[in-house]
TrEMBL record, chain A:
Subcellular location: Endoplasmic reticulum membrane
Origin: domain of life: Eukaryota
Recorded family membership: Belongs to the glycosyltransferase 39 family.
Start and end residues of each MIR domain: 318-381, 392-449, 454-513
Pfam families per the UniProt record, alphabetical: MIR (PF02815), PMT (PF02366), PMT_4TMC (PF16192)
Pathway given in the UniProt record: Protein modification; protein glycosylation
InterPro entries: ArnT-like_N, MIR_dom_sf, MIR_motif, PMT-like, PMT_4TMC
Protein name: Protein O-mannosyl-transferase 1
Keywords for this protein: Endoplasmic reticulum, Glycosyltransferase, Membrane, Repeat, Transferase, Transmembrane, Transmembrane helix
CC per GO annotation: endoplasmic reticulum membrane
EC number: 2.4.1.109
Coiled coil: none
Automatic annotation (TrEMBL), chain B:
Membrane topology according to the record: Multi-pass membrane protein
InterPro entries: ArnT-like_N (IPR003342), MIR_dom_sf (IPR036300), MIR_motif (IPR016093), PMT-like (IPR027005), PMT_4TMC (IPR032421)
UniProt pathway annotation: Protein modification; protein glycosylation
Organism (species): Anser cygnoides (Swan goose)
GO cellular component: endoplasmic reticulum membrane
Domain MIR residues, every copy: 243-299, 312-368, 373-430
UniProt-recorded name of the protein: Protein O-mannosyl-transferase 2
Annotated keywords: Endoplasmic reticulum, Glycosyltransferase, Membrane, Repeat, Transferase, Transmembrane, Transmembrane helix
Primary location: endoplasmic reticulum
Length: 747, 659
């Protein structure tokens, strides 16, 4: 029973001192004086707002990316006990005492520090020597731009951490693949790859590039595995039952089939990331349940699901629109701004400025503010009454209705008169009978766009409705143009005759709604002014909210703004640009995003050497001349897949992007490029320095080069850490390139 | 467009000139006199002789069918596959409609298919390299590439296709150890010669012809730089002599240095309310206009400088000046209000009455790369105007203003002090009676400069075709599913209507086949990788699927995917090149699949019957659908299809079709 006690209990621990030392150095370099400067630094002003909103549980939409990164930053704030009360309005503003600067900045800094041991491990897993791995990790350690970026409340270091983690876990998984498939550690690394990928994507959409790269590499490896005839298919040919001459594939030497391999990869690299990504949004939406500044971007249904805001008004509205309902109609498009169908007693001018005539009937517009004139009453054309009967008769898809403007009791009408600003469309008005042989054409067919069956009932908030004019088959549409002076600059509403398919500007939904009770116009006016009441509640499902939010994040387009420090992707390779992050209010102390010039240049050289050498080898191999042994070639190729591939996928897409770009977008690509330096160096020393003398020379060169990297790091560390403060002359000396913008205070 | 060539007036279009030149040539040969204005669709041709041009386009359009037939025949070595493809193209209403009118697309597709055909033929001759037919097909590929590029920039995709194919080919040759390196070098050289140098030479030649033929000034002048314009007969810069150095009192026009930048312009209209201060608009305008004229004045004095007796005083680098708009007598003005579109820049307005304004009207004039005190030269000096009060630089952002600004280009004052062409200007017209004139011939640009400039202008023009807000535009994903057509002529019930829409049966068959092809290709590739033993017949089939089908599928991808990344306005007809590839793929895939399944049936007669029956059924299906839909391309009169009484009512299978 206690047999195991017969032998002594032995715990053997293997500690890789390299790894520990690197981690400690990383932590020191990234965490040193973390809460200095106690002021808002660069984009903290941007991410800080979101942290505050998380603390206050207020809903927001950020079009720059998915919410996981913001949530991690907010986690730091939560652990530090931040209450969210800080006005993030300007770079350089001093933090008040309630802001836990250290803990807010801790997570990015930790992530930045852990990148160093990760880089070490990656190089080891790529089967390069520990010496090369150490060198690579040290280069990352001494890279000023990575240090600067990790020391503040920014997302890049977290992104790089997850990217490297994903690469490392994939490499570990792949190396285990050869001898122990489907072991526990095999599963752990495979799953970790998927998780890290989804985290990277969740922090910034840039993570998608690395995810795609890993998927491609995994696909390639699987393709090689297909060629391995020792692996069975399922039951000898399940995959290829369509091929008749397949009989002799009954090698059952391996217990696990290709199909299992395929399914395991699919699960870990596709299904788990998707699920994780959804869960980020789930947490995001659960945390943020209060209405806030970005409400109006979302649809009414979404807004109604938030606490406060629209929900306060719509809570307890009747769900089904019936004949006699009093409603406000919101245009679904929400561009150029959200607005409601509106009318007022003013009429269209008889002649417009350009001489065209109008019907001179009452104006119908779309008005961006809540107003009593936004109320309309749904009327049955066959009946006179404007109240809801008991029981209410709901309006269904395809029903013909009239829309009566609540305050003026005129009917929504359109006719073959050109609209004021869009002459190709029909004018929409509230009909005034001038007795001029222009009959009222006020019948509209209700078409529910998102109906499930053809007899669906028109529902408040949920239903998206088109109004099709019965006489002319024009569709009620928001043209987006704003009317001149006579229309009070409200937005133009037209009847679109040539309605091409579905467009959100033609779709409306009921936002506020109540059953009208008052028979008399006077009473009705009082009723229209009173707030809605009654109670029913409804909730949007998570998937519906997710789809909407995701869609909004992807399509919400901020006007591309020019920024003083924005740069083009081409400037990044040579680091022709920098970003000033912070300047001390009185002294010359300042923080810049500025890389280690020598490292950047060497990384470029390494990339060029790698590509040239590879092409040379490739062409020679094609002619059956083998310069290096086969396994060395395999290592060289797989290192290139990761490092050059990682650099390319994280860099080249920026040439196609139209958004404002900054130097920090290059950092993930740079990290991969730096990893390439030790790879190329080791290769050069192993295969190109043949004699002992040249090897020694090469090593001496590397040592010299390394110490100059360290020197450059030290030279620029004042602008990396923001202290000590430098004099004007010293600052001028630091301006190695004319295009750098180092701030020099005028005396 | 052809009219311009016949009249030899210069014009500007976003496409390269070859297509229009060919149309012009066809018109010229058939006796068209170039007088019809071609203003808007629906205008009647009346007595104008247009049949020659239409006939030419239709002829090229009908060449597509034999080209596709030969290509598929060469790739699959199977007559039924080639017939199926030809049948698809013959009976597709979209292809018919598109090639019946005077459009660039049939010409483009002609060259494109020509390039593909000759590439395939050249590959087939690979076993006897350097033979006469090999050279013939290789150089023909080059010629067709030049043609495709010369008609529309979409031709670039077929260049890419041929390029990839050539690289693959060369890689193959390199691996062939029986070939000496010298031989390989010869192969490489031949391809460089025929596929790079020859097309480039032809392409440049097309432009050379274009610029030689069009030597008269026309509507497109303003898009080009001052130096370019001096080449055109009839332009006010042609062969004129103007004073060289700028002086106070000169009347000038200023042109932005960015490619296709406009003239500094102002007009009586004010900025609307809510857009900065309600002062007079200042814009950049691409056309020549009296409102582009400005007078250079000293900041303080209002002395009438036109008085001939006063001494001439030159403007020097670093001087503070005031620019007065000639027509409205307002000063160029800027202040710390945000610009209408570029929010971080300052607004530029016209301010003051009869030249009296305030200190915000002062600008410092600086020439790039010169020392203070130097004189400023017309046309040649690149000038920067710095606003004295705020320190910002006058520039054109390149964004188009909304309707209130007449869709002219926004002019702002940018606080970011970078020297980009956006913020540099040159003086173009210069009128000062007191100064001696010099001739402008020194400016003559070289042909290479003209070529480069016209390309920049075309690229800018292309990317400038942006959809407006709220406009329902065609999306690339609409195309393969034949979601929505394009109205060619006629809107109302009584009109003679032509509607560009693919034959839905054909298009949906194509779409379905792409999926089918992917499945086939993947399972074939996996089977080969797994080392499945195939009979020789199946080996041949898999070669057709992977090599031949792969080439065509690559062509489809190259002609379709890039549209997803384009920001410009897209139209349905952009899909047609891809559709050609897709049709060829359909032919190959169905033929292969039918052969494969027929292979299961042991008696050869049954197998042949199944195979033949399958092909025949497809052909009949396509013919019948053409019978149903032919009014789309040959025109229809009568009620719209949405009306149940129309003969086409039953054919409106999708709500989005509007015939």
């Amino acid at each position: 029973m206690l047999g195991f006690l017969k032998n002594p209990v032995v715990v053997t621990a293997e500690i890789n001192v390299n790894l520990v030392a690197l981690t400690v150095m990383g932590l020191i370099s990234r965490l040193w004086g973390l809460s200095y400067p106690r002021a808002v630094v660069f984009d903290e002003v941007y991410y800080g707002q979101f942290v505050s909103l998380y603390m206050k549980r207020i809903f927001f939409v950020d079009d720059s990316g998915p919410p996981f990164g913001h949530m991690l930053l907010a986690l730091g704030g939560y652990l530090g006990g931040f209450d969210g009360n800080f006005l993030w309005n300007r770079i350089g503003a001093e933090y008040s005492m309630n802001v836990p600067v250290w803990s807010l900045r801790l997570l990015p800094a930790l992530a930045g520090a852990l990148c160093i041991p990760l880089a070490y491990q990656i190089l080891v897993e790529l089967q390069f020597s520990h010496c090369a791995a150490l060198g690579g990790a040290l280069l990352i350690l001494l890279e000023n731009s990575l240090i600067t970026q990790s020391r503040f409340m920014l997302l890049e270091s977290i992104l790089i951490f997850f990217i490297l983690l994903a690469v490392l876990s994939y490499l570990k998984f792949y190396n285990l693949q050869r001898h122990s498939s489907f072991s526990a550690s095999w599963w752990v690394w495979l799953l970790l790859t998927g998780v890290a990928c989804s985290c990277a994507v969740g922090v910034k959409y840039m993570g998608l590039f690395t995810y795609m790269l890993l998927l491609a590499i995994a696909g390639l490896h699987f393709w090689h595995m297909l060629g391995n005839q020792n692996l069975s298919n399922v039951g000898g040919g399940w995959l290829f039952c369509s091929y008749p001459c397949l009989g002799d594939l009954s090698l059952k030497t391996c217990s696990v089939s290709l199909l299992c391999h395929f399914l395991a990869r699919g699960l870990a690299l596709i299904i788990i990331p998707v699920a994780m990504y959804l869960s980020f949004f789930y947490v995001h939406l659960t945390l943020l349940y209060r209405s806030g500044p970005h409400d109006q971007i979302m649809t009414s249904a979404f807004q109604a699901s938030l606490e406060g805001g629209l929900a306060r008004i719509t809570q307890g509205q009747p769900l089904e629109v019936a004949y006699g309902s009093q409603i406000t109609l919101r245009n679904v498009l929400g561009k150029p701004m959200q607005c409601w169908l509106h009318s007022h007693t003013n009429t269209y001018p008889i002649r417009y400025e350009n001489g065209r005539g109008s019907s001179h009937q009452q104006q119908v517009t779309c008005y961006p503010f809540k107003d009593v004139n936004n109320w309309w009453i749904v009327k049955d054309p066959g009946m006179q009454q404007l109240v809801v009967s008991n029981p209410p008769r709901p309006v269904r898809h395809g029903h013909i209705v009239q829309l009566v403007h609540g305050i003026t009791t005129r009917y929504l009408n359109t006719h073959d008169v050109a609209a004021p600003l869009s002459p190709h469309s029909q004018e929409v008005s509230c009909y005034i009978d001038y007795n001029v042989s222009m009959p009222a054409q006020n019948l509209w067919r209700v078409e529910i766009v998102n109906r499930e069956t053809d007899t669906d009932v028109w529902k408040t908030i949920l239903s998206e409705v088109r109004f099709v004019h019965v006489n002319t088959s024009a569709v009620l549409k928001l043209s987006g143009a704003s009317l001149p002076e006579w229309g009070y600059r409200q937005l133009e509403v037209v009847g679109e005759k040539l309605s091409k398919g579905y467009h959100q500007s033609m779709v409306w939904n009921v936002e506020e709604h109540r059953y009208g009770k008052s028979q008399e116009q006077k009473e009705r006016e009082v009723e229209l002014h009173s707030p809605t009441q009654m109670d029913i509640s409804k909730n949007l499902s998570f998937m519906a909210k997710f789809t909407e939010l995701q869609w909004k994040i992807l399509t919400l387009k901020n006007e591309d703004t020019e920024h003083k420090y924005s740069s083009s992707a081409l400037d990044w390779i040579t680091m022709d640009t920098n970003i000033a992050y912070w300047l001390h209010p009185t002294s010359g102390a300042q923080i810049h995003l500025l890389g280690n010039v020598l490292t950047w240049a060497s990384a470029n050289v390494a990339a060029v050497i790698y590509v040239c050498l590879s092409l040379w080898y490739l062409v020679r191999r094609r002619r059956k001349i083998y310069d290096i042994p086969e396994d060395a070639w395999q290592l060289w190729v797989s290192a290139g897949e990761i490092c050059v591939g990682g650099w390319a996928v994280n860099y080249l897409p920026f040439f196609l992007m139209e958004k404002t770009l900054f130097l920090y977008h290059y950092l993930p690509a740079l990290t991969f490029q730096i990893l390439l330096i030790p790879i190329v160096l080791q290769h050069l020393s192993d295969y190109l320095c043949r004699s002992l003398l040249s090897k020694t020379m090469f090593r001496a060169l590397i040592v010299a080069w390394f110490s100059s990297v360290y020197l450059v790091y030290c030279t620029f560390s004042p602008v990396t850490y923001g202290e000590p403060s430098l004099s004007v002359a010293e600052l001028k000396d630091l301006r190695w390139k004319d295009s750098w913008n180092i701030l020099i205070r005028k005396q | 467009m052809g009219s311009y060539y016949i009249n030899r007036t210069f014009f500007f279009d976003v496409h390269p000139p070859l297509g229009k030149m060919l149309i012009g040539l066809a018109g010229y040969l058939s006796g068209y006199d170039g007088t019809f204005p071609f203003q808007k669709p629906g205008d009647r041709y009346e007595q104008h002789n247009y049949m020659g041009m239409r006939g030419f386009c239709a002829f090229l359009g009908s060449c597509l069918v034999p080209f596709a037939y030969l290509t598929v025949l060469e790739l699959s070595k199977s007559l039924p596959a080639a017939l199926l493809t030809a049948c698809i193209l013959i009976f597709d209403t979209g292809c018919i409609t598109l090639s019946q009118y005077i459009l660039l697309d049939p010409i483009l597709m002609f060259f494109l298919m020509g390039a593909v055909l000759s590439m395939v033929k050249c590959n087939a001759c690979a076993d006897r390299p350097f033979s006469a037919s090999w050279w013939f097909w290789l150089s023909l590929t080059g010629v067709n590439l030049a043609g495709a590029m010369g008609v529309k920039f979409v031709g670039l995709f077929v260049v890419l296709l041929v390029g990839l194919n050539t690289i693959y080919d060369l890689w193959d040759l390199l691996g062939n150890l029986s070939l000496s390196l010298v031989m390989f070098g010869k192969h490489l050289l031949a391809r460089v010669l025929c596929l790079i140098l020859l097309p480039l030479a032809l392409y440049t030649a097309v432009f050379a012809v274009h610029f030689t033929v069009l030597n008269k000034s026309g509507p497109g002048d303003g898009f080009f730089s001052s130096a370019f314009q001096s080449q055109l007969i009839g332009n006010n810069l042609h062969n004129v002599s103007i004073p060289e150095h700028l002086a106070y009192g000169s009347v000038i026009t200023m042109k932005n240095l960015r490619m296709a930048g406009g003239y500094l312009h102002s007009h009586w209209h004010l900025y609307p309310e809510g857009v900065g201060a309600r002062q007079q608009q200042v814009t950049a305008y691409l056309h020549k206009d009296l409102n582009n004229l400005w007078i250079i004045k000293k900041p303080d004095s209002d002395a009438d400088l036109s008085d001939p007796s006063s001494p001439v005083e030159f403007v020097r680098h670093g001087d503070i000046i005031r620019l007065e708009h000639k027509e409205t007598s307002r000063n160029l003005h800027s202040h710390q209000h945000e610009a209408p579109l570029t929010r971080k820049h300052f607004q530029v307005t016209g301010y003051g009455i009869n030249g009296t304004g305030d200190s915000n009207d002062f600008w410092r004039i600086e020439v790039v790369g010169r020392k203070p005190g130097k004189l400023i030269k017309v046309l040649r000096s690149q000038v920067r105007l710095t606003h004295v009060a705020t320190g910002c630089i006058l520039g054109s952002s390149g964004k188009t203003l909304p309707k209130w600004g007449w869709e002219q280009v926004e002019v702002t004052c940018t606080p970011y002090l970078k020297d980009t062409p956006n913020s540099l200007w040159n003086f173009e017209d210069h009128i000062n009676p007191k100064l001696p004139n010099i001739s402008l011939d020194v400016l003559k640009p070289s042909f290479a400069e003209i070529l480069l400039e016209s390309h920049m202008v075309m690229i800018r023009g292309n990317s400038g075709l942006k959809p407006k807000d709220n406009e329902v535009t065609s999306k690339p994903w609409h195309w393969p599913i034949n979601y929505q057509g394009l109205r060619f002529s006629g809107v109302n019930e009584t009109d003679y209507r032509v509607y560009l829409l693919g034959n839905p049966v054909v298009w949906w068959l194509n779409l379905f086949t792409i999926g089918l092809y992917l499945l086939t290709a993947i399972s074939t590739a996996v089977a080969l990788k797994r080392g499945v033993q195939l009979s020789s017949e199946l080996k041949e089939l898999s070669r057709v699927v992977l090599r031949g089908g792969g080439q065509i599928a690559l062509g489809w991808l190259l002609h379709y995917l890039p549209f997803f990344m384009m920001g410009r306005v897209l139209y349905f007809h952009h899909y047609f090149p891809a559709m050609l590839f897709s049709s060829m793929l359909t032919g190959i895939t169905w033929d292969t699949l039918l052969k494969f399944f027929a292979g299961f049936l042991s008696p050869s007669t049954a197998a042949r019957r199944v195979y033949g029956g399958g092909i025949l059924a497809l052909v009949l299906l396509i013919m019948y659908s053409f019978y149903l839909f032919h009014p789309l391309s040959y025109g229809m009169i009568g009620p719209m299809a949405s009306d149940p009484s129309s003969p086409m009512a039953g054919l409106r299978w999708m709500d989005s079709w509007e015939f």
